[in-house]
Amino acid sequence: RFSYPGSMFGLVEVETGIVAFGLRGQVQHSSDFGQTWRLLDSPTQSTLLDGAVGPDGTVLMVGSGAARLRYRPQDDDFELTEDRLGDALAGVAFTQSGSVIYAGEAGLSNE
Asked: How far apart are CA 101 and CA 16, in angstroms?
């Protein structure tokens, strides 16, 4: 049973199961593909709108306040970059070379 009744906006599959994310920075992990969920200690309250899994298995989630939240399932560790006054990010993708492309209110950007 999912332990958060609020809105969730995305799911990504990782080596250890499924990661779900959404409203108010909620991030949850299921190691049994949705039968049970564990609330993760997300360091943000920004709504997370999209996510992608990088070549090293790191999940990159993006959202309001220009939030960029990296989650490493293998270490159960988060790294947050955000600018509360920044433009919202609504999409993220990794290229084959491992670089990242973002989509949001300010158009497209990469790193």
From this structure: 25
- The pTM of the full predicted model, rounded to 2 decimals, is 0.92
Q: Which long-range contacts (CB under 8 A, 24 or more apart) does 91-95 make?
A: 91/49, 91/50, 91/62, 92/50, 92/51, 92/52, 92/60, 92/61, 92/62, 93/52, 94/52, 94/53, 94/54, 94/55, 94/60
Q: What is the pLDDT, as a whole number, of residue 82?
A: 81
